[in-house]
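Check out one such.
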Amino acid sequence: MDKLKGKAKEAAGKLTGDRRMEAEGKTDQTKAKAEGALGAVGDRAKGVKDSLDDDKK
């Protein structure tokens, strides 16, 4: 959701010449990418933990 919101803000900023809005849009997109990466790392860690738990059984 943040990625789409960021793209919209960035586009609106470019159209209106509002550099602050454009920068906020880019920031929102970067935030969304970071959250996605963090989620992927968490999923991988859970998978490793589950795998290790299965090996103990």
